[in-house]
Structure formats: structure tokens, C-alpha cells
Amino acid sequence: MRRVFSSRLQWDASPNPLAQLLAKKRGEGANILDLTESNPTRANLSYPAEEILAALADARALRYDPDPRGLPAAREAVSRYYAERGAGVPASRILLTASTSEAYAYLFKLLANPGEEILVPRPSYPLFEYLAAIEAVQVRQYPLRYDGGWHIDFAALEQAITARTRAIVVVNPNNPTGSYLKRDEWKRLQQLNLPILSDEVFSDFPFAEDPRRVQTLAAAGNVLTFSMSGLSKIAGLPQMKLGWIVASGPGHEAAIRGLEWIADTFLSVATPVQLALPRLLAASAAVRARIQARTGENLACLREAAGAGSPCQVLAVEGGWYAVLQVPRTRTEQDWALQLLGERNVLVQPGFFYDFESEAFLVLSLLTAPEVFRAGIERVLL
To answer: I need a labelling partner for 370 at 20 to 30 A (CA). Which of 19, 157, 191, 377 fits?
Structure first.
């Protein structure tokens, strides 16, 4: 029989055991304490609703006047966002996208031919393999190691580089480990002389200051670098569908021209959100403050509950929206997650969802409503 669909879509879409059990429990009407909530618009946060809605009521949105890089006023707003963080980023180095996922797709198209490779960290966000496969690009992983803090295993990273390697992805801070890239790591990465794709969507959410870390790679470095962020995290507005790429370092002018060609074939960023962007970014400070207060409160709760005498350990986390809890290896991560859901009505994510190399880790969202988080942690640590 002749093949109908592309091999890019040959994934197993059947629900995993945890998803099956969750559907069953919800079908039975169980009250689930969900410690995986990552959607800020469903996390019981207060938003400046009037300001957000007013920002979208711009009559200029009735006129279609596309710019593949993004409207100049919107890119200038992003430039001011970086200036407030001490990074000089002219609007000419910024290209708007509909999301960070789309930014990855553009960059994979720009940098890699079919079959070539992109290096991504492990553990990390589980979407990379899907994004790469859709672009016919191969993913190879390099490990992050934990010794009381997370760091790049440079020996393993260098061994993973081949003649087909086209770029290295860093997630700063990482999801879910919450570890920031350090200055000495950034120096070593530049010595590898490969383009760097820096995912910085959580960079505005540190739990403490640390002079060793690099908050953004948007300022020019010694290698071609692409920094990505957007409204989904920094404003808690994933539904607005606006992200961006900042190109820096040697060759960034040619890179922006190539990205402009790609963007011009899609023109995916809606005019209303581009016009609203300056006001949305201005309003985002209040949203970030509420998110930081929420995640900080939940992290303190978790650390207190898993304190002295507990068989569980909270791994060091520097920023972001997640925490990693190491639990006893008396059962697998999947069995931990299934038991917690089946017997205690608590939903957590097992570490293997994020490609942790060993057992046994559970990933918890610090964005969860505090009363739900506290009750859920009490049941986890029974």
C-alpha cells in the first residue's frame, strides 16, 4: 500500500499509563490535586485585565501592512525590554515569531539541512525531538550533571559533536532543573565555535541573585547566537502568541536576512498583538511579580516539607516555574506517579518525561495554586 503521510509524523500517540489513569479518575469525578499546572491563565493568578484588553483595542489592527521581521514599533518594544536588563539590542537584530516553538522551527530551517544534527540538553523540555523531526533534523543529547548544582558536562558535549552538528541548544534557565548558564560555561561554549540557540523564556524568574550566571545571551558574543523569548512566560500570556529571536555575534546580519526570508513565507504573527506589544510588556511586570511570589511561596513550602528527616530531597533550583523532587528508589518513577494518582489523587510528572538519566525524580509545577500545592505535597510526602 502506498504511504499516505510523512514519516515525520510516525509517533506513538496512544495515551501513556499515567494519562490513562488520569482520564479514568476524572471520569469517576475524583478531585485531583494537580501539581503539574503550567498554564498561567489557569493557575488562579490575578491579571491587569483592563490594561490587557485595552491594549488590543487599536483601530490600526484593521489595516494589514505586514513586515516579515515584525512591526518596527513592536521590535522597538522588545529592544527596550532588553535595555531594561542591561543588554543593548537594536531592533534590527530582532525578528518576531508566533511562539518560541516557531522560533525553533525557523532556526532549524535556517541552520540545518535534512538529516543534520542539533545538540540539546538532557534533562530538558521534551518538545525538542518533535520540533526537530517536523523539520527533518536529528536531535542528539548532551548531559547536564548534578552535584549539588547543575552544570554542563563539557566532555560529553564535545564527544557529541560530529561533522553533522549545526548548533547547540541551551535552555537558560533550564526546564525543569531551573539551572542558569554560568559565565564560565558561556565562555567554553563559545570556544566550540558552533551557533548557540538560547531559550530564555524563564530568565525573568530567578529565586535569588547570582553574579556567576548569564541572564541572557542577547548581547553580542564571539559566536553566532540566537536568544529566544516571548509573552508566553514573561507576561504569563501564552494565548497572545508572540515570541521573538534576537540574533547576535559574527554573521548575525546574514542570519537575520535568512530568517526574514523564512518569516515572509508564513507571516504568522498577528497585527493586533504586535500593536499591543508595548503595552503588554509594560503590564507584564505586575504579572511576573505575582508569578514570582507564587513560585517562591511554593518552593519554600516544598523545602520545608522535605526538610530534615525526610527521605525525599529537593534538588537545587535557581529559577523558573518547576522543582525536582528526588524520591526513594523503592519503585520506578512511573510507579511513584501512578501510585500517587491512583491512591492519593495527586498528579505529578515522572522525571523520564524530561529524559532524566536515572531514577527516581518527580517534577512539580511551582505555578500551582498554593492551597493545592500544599495539600498535594502533604500527600506526596505521607
So the answer is: 19
56 pLDDT more than 90: yes
Distance CA 362, CA 354 (A): 10
Q: Is residue 233 predicted with pLDDT exceeding 80? A: yes
Minimal CA–CA distance to 126: which of 287, 286, 363, 304? 363
- Residue 143 CB contacts under 8 Å (≥ 6 apart), including other chains: 121, 122, 153, 156, 157, 357
Confidence of residue 3 (pLDDT cuts 50, 70, 90): confident
Asked if 360 and 216 count as a contact pair (C-beta separation under 8 A), the reply is no
User: Quick check: bond before 176 cis, omega within 30?
Assistant: yes
271: which 3 cell numbers? 497585527
- For residue 7 the three cell numbers come to 514519516
Residue 225 phi/psi, 5-degree rounding, is: -135, 140
Domain boundaries, given as residue ranges, for the chain: 14-46+285-380, 49-283
Look up residue 50 and give its amino acid: E
Q: Which CATH number fits domain 14-46+285-380: 3.90.1150.10, 2.60.410.10, 3.30.420.140, 3.40.50.620?
A: 3.90.1150.10
In the predicted structure, residue 221 carries a pLDDT above the cut 90: no
Compute the distance between CA of residue 251 and CA of residue 367 in angstroms, rounded to an integer: 39
Report the candidate in 162, 120, 160, 112 with the shortest Cα–Cα distance to residue 137. 112
CATH fold group of domain 49-283: Aspartate Aminotransferase; domain 2 (3.40.640)
Neighbouring C-beta atoms of residue 315, cutoff 10 Å: 17
